[in-house]
Amino acid sequence: MSKRADFYDAPAHDYLRYWDGRDYENAAEQAAIRRLLHGRRFGHAADVGGGYGRLCVLLQEFADRVTLAEPSSRQLEIAENFLAGHPRIERRQMQADALAFEDGSLDLLTMIRVMHHIPEPSTEFAEIARVLRPGGTAVIEVANLAHARNRVRYLLKGQRIPHLPVDIRSPENRHDEEIAFVNHNPHTVIEQLARCGLRTEGMLSVSNLRSTTLKKVLSHRVHVAAEVACQRVLARTFFGPSAFLLLRKD
Ligand SMILES: C[S@@+](CC[C@H](N)C(=O)[O-])C[C@H]1O[C@@H](n2cnc3c(N)ncnc32)[C@H](O)[C@@H]1O
């Protein structure tokens, strides 16, 4: 196992409060997961790096058994309250490069908003492939380096979008003690996943309309409806800042 991924123990990572004012992003992500999993039913699902369990309740719609798999003790403590009304959701401490599940024991695995903390994910992807049963499903969110605004930025600089992850931390935070924060080229990620036997069979572009102005001028309902209408149409162009990949373990 590499170094401990316990950065979210720090009080600075008040992840529950992070979601204040982000109802649009939350609804956009939940809609994406529902769309990708529509019509499917699973036995055991695990949400890896699931934080305080924001998405675990939703996973219960699709799975008989849900495990929140999270490295931070603090997030797991918050989960005790957040998931108090859902006693059947298990909470287990682990990180993505050392998943405490038996080989082939999971039917569904989700990992949302975690890739941006994992600059070199090959060990984690191998672990995901190991714990999924053959034919099992994963939904992995990629912090997307190739989103439309970035493409324009790179174009204006006369550069191509890098294949390797780009560190997006401010200069003062670029040191080993600070949590990694990267954006990934989704094409590279899809190849890395394929090398581990995780085949991309669907994707959605998410948070396409993330904008303070749109949050002000549109009602939440209209804003989310417009987002949902864009997610599939814009998927192939990797338009939004977040790409949701639907994967099948071969
Ligand atoms: C931005 S939060 C996302 C939480 C949750 N997935 C969500 O979308 O609400 C990132 C989470 O990833 C966890 N994390 C960071 N590095 C990790 C790793 N190597 N393996 C598993 N989880 C990790 C953190 O502890 C934190 O809970």
Automatic annotation (TrEMBL):
The alphabetical list of record keywords is: Methyltransferase, Transferase
Domain Methyltransferase type as annotated: residue spans: 47-140
Sorted alphabetically, which CDD domains does this protein's record hold? AdoMet_MTases (cd02440)
Record flagged with keyword Repeat: no
The UniProt entry, under SUPFAM superfamilies, shows: S-adenosyl-L-methionine-dependent methyltransferases
Name its GO BP terms in alphabetical order: methylation
A Gene Ontology molecular function term for this protein is:
S-adenosylmethionine-dependent methyltransferase activity
Keyword Cell division among record annotations: no
Stated family:
Belongs to the methyltransferase superfamily.
Under the heading PANTHER family, the entry gives: METHYLTRANSF_11 DOMAIN-CONTAINING PROTEIN, METHYLTRANSFERASE TYPE 11 DOMAIN-CONTAINING PROTEIN
Name this polypeptide is given: Methyltransferase family protein
